[in-house]
What we know:
mainly beta; 4-stranded antiparallel beta sheet; 39% strand
Amino acid sequence: GAVWSWGWGGEGMLGHGDEQIQSLPMRIEALAGQRVVAVSASLLHSLALTANGDVWSWGFRGRGRLGHGDTQNQQLPKKVEAFAGQRVVAVSAGGDYSLALTTDGALWSWGDGGSGRLGHGDGQPQLLPKKVEAFAGQRIVAVSAGWEHSLALTADGAVWSWGFGGRGRLGHGDTQEQQLPKKVEALADQRFVAVWAGGAHSL
Length: 203
């Protein structure tokens, strides 16, 4: 359950309390005593999910992508206290935002809201995790945060996408942005089990 990181340490994204480059994997001691079951790394921030359902984040603070209610850098992992009382089962770090899935099948997002990538129907940043109400009545089983767009998979095997639509990455047959999650109708005759949002494309 230990986490190891290496590479560029700018903005504290490696979680070692400094901004040093690590050419070899180094254990993140700030997570000692925690059993981490999942991790997600984006360009400038990182997320970890512990066995008890807590979310930890660290790295660059811009636009609230860390979920701590402020815009401070975190050079060490810090628990996202907004999830107190919730049990998170999946996390995904996007370009400058984050997604999390709780045990009740609800989706939460925070960070930069540009192009509607947070799924709240606007382009506003969110400094704290906020439930995506557009999925009320749906049970989400998987999520993926890309650079500027997001994907979700519902329990019935349907794929939903939202955010920046450039180059057709949302799969709706156009290049329009979607500020609210929209089902990918072209996949309606299939049952999917996984989704992945890339920089400018989707799988």
